[in-house]
Every structure is written in C-alpha cells, then in structure tokens.
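To: structure subgroup
Subject: Chain for Friday's discussion

All,

I'm putting the inputs and outputs inline so they're searchable in the archive.
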Amino acid sequence: MESLNNDFFLKVWGEKIKSKGEDAHPLCLSKQDISVIGVCDGMGGAGSKLYTNNNSKKSGAAIAATTVSKTVTEYFLNVFNEESFEFDIDKLKKLIKEQLHEISNLYKEEKTLLKSKLISSFPTTLAILLLFKRDEKVEVTSIWAGDSRNFTLTKNGLLQLSKDDLRIDNDPLENIYNDSPLSNFIKLEDDFKLNHTTFEIEKKNVFFSATDGCFQFYKSPMHFELMLLKTLSASNSVDEWKLNIEKELHEISGDDFSMALETIEFKNFDSIKKYYQDRCDLLQNLLIDIDHIEVEEKKLENTIEHYQKEIIKSKQKKKEKLLQVWKEYKKEYYKKVESYVERGEH
C-alpha cells in the first residue's frame, strides 16, 4: 500500500498456479495531481506458445503482459518528467508494438505440435485509468484492449468505464454465462486498437482497473461489487482490505487475477468504510432473495445427490437379491438343459 496526500493505492495480485501466473503485477503511478493505474492479463489460451531465453521458459502470454505493463509504466514516467503532461494514445500504441517486436527477438519459440487459428504471438489485454484530479472533479481517461476492465466505485454503486472487446455483443452479466471470444487485444502479429474515452467524475471515489480473474467468476457484477464492499467493511486498514480481497479471489477465481486501485479524497481508512457502508447494506438487501434461492437450490442438489446414491444402492441390492432367487429357481427351471448337456446330446 502506498499513499499520497491521503489518496491510497492498493495492488491486488494472485496466481491460479504458483509461479505459472500470466497476469502482470498491477501498476500504480502518481505525480502531484495525476495518477495512472492499470493491469495486463496475458491470455493463456491464445498465448500458450512457450519461449526460452537464457534457460528461462515462459509462455507468450506471460511475456506479453509483463512487457506491455513495463512499456506503459516507462511511457508515463517519461511523460511525468516533461514540463507539461501530454498524453498521446498513438505514441503509446507505437511503443507497445515496438517493445513486443523487440522482446520477440530475445526469445526462442519452443517447437510444438499444437496448431490453432486461435493461438497468437504475445497476446495480452490492457486496462488503464489516467486520473487528472481537478478542484471538484476527476478527469478520467479510460484506456483498454480486450476484456480487462476499468471501474469507479461511487456511493451509488459500481460503474464500468470500459466496454469489453467481444465478438458477441454480450453485456457483463450475459458474458459470465456465455463467455465470448475477444474481438480485439494486444498481440504481435496483427494490428490492435487501444480504445479510449474520457469522463468527468466526482472526486470522492474509488477508481480501479481489474483483469477478468477478479470479476468473471462471480454470479453477477452486483456480487462482485458486494465482495469489494464486504471486504472493505470487514477490514481495519488498506493493507487488510488488500489481503481480504486476495483471500476472496483465491477462493472463487479459476484464473490469475490483478487489480490496481486508488481511493481519492478520503481522510483515512475509516472514512472510506463509513462512506460505503450504506451502499453495502443496500446491496446485501437487494441480493438477499437471490441468496435464499441459492440456499434452497443447494438443498435440492444435496437431496438429488442423496437419492442418486440411494438409487445406486437400491439397484445393487436388487441385483444381488435377483441372483440369489435365481440360484434357487434355476435348479428346477434348468435341470433338463443340464441333464441334456451332461449326456452329451448336443
């Protein structure tokens, strides 16, 4: 955890398989009243090719995420050092492409029998929030490629500040249950688009970027928001909030996860908790019926499982009893056939 003028940064990160993670570590940068937070999710399926460099073997997905995150960090650090801050989306995209080409020359591709049109060279998603803190508002530039997302958590709820690049035009709830392939993401061999748009948002808020491992395994975006609020309510510091979020995500997520978060205009951690407590209570009440239905569903599933086991036992018992009765019955029923066989009349 880092802080600047009572604004707090929080970095959440975890691996599905230890030492095999393909999400880059989250980035959090700031200078005076400007902040940059962001995440990169190396795409394990599309980026499953393996590469070696000095006896080090990594997937193209992991290399891509780390390379792009490093490039974005270096770009903004250089911009911070200039007299006037001038963000250029085309220049950032050019630098990313150059760095991916440069890194591709440093790694040797492992031979594989795997062939698929879905496999790409060094694929990754990207989500960045560029925050200019004005007197009353924050000028927010949301930048993304793929399905990593940018958000703000307001007193009235969670706002998504990016739109997933999907081949099927699912909304965020639909995409949980019918996951669409991506229509756009960063990769080496083809062109890609860095989407970007700007908003003005109230200054007193939480802003964050997250890879899909953070939100895609919840029943809905509402449940994802509730997780953030409940872990906040149960924590006594920013560090504890980070640990509680990571614990929750390790339990539910079937993927690597990464989140970069900044709170703006809060005096201390207690003031953040108080600010969002009413929202936490409201959302819990909104979702309580769904939770009750889910409890009943679990009971039914357990009942079905119980009776399925009982049915299996019953079938086995029936079979054993049938064989037992048949053994006695067969003595009379089959004696002519056995006699016929014994005399050799066949």
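Points worth raising on Friday:
The domain at 2-266 is CATH 3.60.40.10 (Phosphatase 2c; domain 1).
The mean pLDDT is 91.

D.
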